[in-house]
Please model this.
Amino acid sequence: MDGMSGVRGGSGGDGTGWSLVVPLKPLEVAKSRLAAAGTVRPALALAFVLDTVGAALACAEVEDVTVVTDDPAAGAELAGLGAFVVADSPAAGLNAALRHGEATVRARRPHAPVAALNGDLPALRPAELAEVLRAAAGACERAFLADAAGTGTTLLCTVPCLPLAPGFGGASRARHLASGAAEITLPAAPSVRQDVDTLEDLAAALALGVGPFTAVAAAALTARGA
Ligand SMILES: Nc1nc2c(ncn2[C@@H]2O[C@H](COP(=O)(O)OP(=O)(O)OP(=O)(O)O)[C@@H](O)[C@H]2O)c(=O)[nH]1
Ligand SMILES: C=C(OP(=O)(O)O)C(=O)O
Model:
């Protein structure tokens, strides 16, 4: 997959909204901590990102969403939702993918506020994301939201004049704090914090209420007895 595909999405509409960058591993290797889901694992990983991107595109503060992925089939489905899709290039892991996505956004929208959002937030609600982005805009610097576990990060955002400088992976909350980013503590925004790495996380997301793609994939998981 070369270059960029997809159409302008989001409902920001006035040209001043956030450009989001969502990373996605190829589905065959994504969500390895969901190995207990067996053959349903890739479908779950796809469902999570479709629900994440669908909710992000429905957020009033979001201008557009760029997905960075080396999975052409997932990329086509995400472009169908209205996301821009770019390949991991060069493929060098999560933070390199985010920097690449940021560069493609900056080339298209040099003055845009940019945020990296994990692709595994199947309970994401547009109104909660909007509240978080409004809180971040008030910070006037780099800012991040910790995940539900309190150790990782689900969203990192920046203003037009500062690089995103992502430090995602594992215990990234401490890394982002050490990098000088401000932690967003309000709103509580449980749906923006609830990333899904394990079956326990999936149960927590289902309790919050997941999007339509994850509801179907989770039903398939239940049907197979996991
Ligand atoms: N484009 C891209 N996305 C990545 C890469 N590594 C992780 N991601 C994505 O980054 C987000 C957060 O990553 P994780 O929660 O660790 O997801 P994961 O790597 O699929 O999960 P595990 O295999 O269990 O570690 C998810 O949306 C992943 O799909 C990468 O190398 N390239
Ligand atoms: C990507 C992250 O962690 P995890 O792989 O645990 O989702 C993170 O929180 O930065």
Summary: The chain has eight helices and eight strands. The helical segments are 41-57, 72-81, 94-108, 126-139, 172-178, 190-193, 199-208, 212-223. The two ends are 34 Å apart (CA to CA).
